[in-house]
Amino acid sequence: MLQDMHNQIKCPIAIPPQVQTNDSTAIVGNIIDLLGFGSCEFVILYGGITDANVTFTTLLEDGNDPTLSDHAAVGDSCLLGTEEGATPLYSDDNTSFKLGYLGPKRYVRLTITPSGNDAGDINIAALAILGYPRVEPIEDQAVASA
Q: Which residues of the chain have pLDDT under 50?
């Protein structure tokens, strides 16, 4: 028998769906507030990646300031999976990756940095799935990006 997850998660947009063309600028995600939740999993979605020499770096940062002015890279001991394992190759079209957070900080932010994206497109989006709420059920409403 399946169990109800619908009323126990919130899914704010970490990186809004976008296409980055011929650009190696870092794709800095929204700041995700973990208040009231006991778990956080990022799901990163890639569509077509048309530049054959692009490489990526995935970074997860955390902090206690709402603007993340105190941000620091999340240590490996606070991750479920690895940033490297959540990083695609240029040939990873139409794939998804996940990266979990176990740290003690209130705010987190995902950043994807392409390098060498000089001749193509990167289609990307990411969600943060927040679970184990302190108050249930979670209201069924659209969650806008920050």
A: none
